[in-house]
UniProtKB/TrEMBL annotation:
Its cofactor is FMN; Mg(2+). Residues 15-228 are annotated as: Phosphopantothenate--cysteine ligase. The chain holds residues 176 to 403 of 405 of the full protein. Its EC number is 4.1.1.36, 6.3.2.5. Binds 1 FMN per subunit. The gene is coaBC. This is Coenzyme A biosynthesis bifunctional protein CoaBC. In the C-terminal section; belongs to the PPC synthetase family.
Amino acid sequence: AILNPMERPLEGQRAVVTSGPTREAIDPVRYISNHSSGRQGHAIARALAEAGARVTLVSGPVQEPDPEGVTTVHIESAREMLAAVEAALPVDIAVCAAAVADWRPALAPARKIKKEEGAAAPVIELVENPDILRTLARHPRRPRLVVGFAAETGDLEALARAKLARKGCDWILANDVSPGSGIFGGESNRILLLTAEGESEAWPELDKREVARRLVRRIADHLAREAD
Ligand code: CTP
Ligand code: CA
């Protein structure tokens, strides 16, 4: 069969995608995490690969199967996620879709924390995790295009615009995760795409696989225009 080159517009491009939650150990049997399903990040990795890109997916623990045609690296903590992402560099495209735990327990003792008769409940001190998106956006081997997500409740555009500037990335895909929006952990997303150049694009509510394909088309157009 004759392959239409327009159907594999990212042939020769390399990409790294983060997906799923991270798990931050409290002790050997307990952890802090979140409800991220990994659906959106995995769909993006798959769509990039279908468009011809060589993709490394760095994923926290999820139910989703490893996408075909993608190199999947399984990690647990944010620090492991950052190390795996840096090991995948250099890449042309980075998409950070993971729900990275913002904090981790300061101490993760090698032994299980035990209840003691009459003792008070333990207080778990937290420290901030590395910001993978921000690190990529300021990296000496910065990808040509760095894309992040923003899950917000409140004034979506203002909060996401501020986040885009703070992170130093190129694009932010913002979505409203207010209670009742059904977005977090759901099948679909309603995206507001903001660019560092000041563009803003409201997408209709789409299935997460459709969001992934639309993003990949947008990335291919952008890189093609940039190459001109
Ligand atoms: N992100 C990341 N590493 C972190 C935290 C976030 O790579 N330690 C990425 C996420 O993958 C996402 C983007 O940053 O692409 C925004 O994540 P979000 O949680 O919305 O932003 P935060 O900067 O953590 O701010 P907050 O949670 O306070 O809104
Ligand atoms: Ca966060």
